[in-house]
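Task card 7
Instruction: Convert sequence to structure tokens.
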Amino acid sequence: MNLLLDTNIVLNVIRAKDFAGIVNFINPSNAQLYLSVVSEAELKSIALRNNWGVNRRALLDSFLEEVNIIEVNQLYVNIYA
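Output:
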């Protein structure tokens, strides 16, 4: 099974005190994780606007390196609609 994460899920994972525990909870089978490029942009914007510190930014960057980023194109928009 693959998991497509939304922005709010990733925000809660990054904000959690037990980062690894939360990741294991939402993904116990170590499935492939996916994130849309829109969510990636939202997360980076939130981090910038809220002046996230070095540690939280490092967690976000590390998380983003581990997920597969999905580009949004017209095909996906049509499927969604």
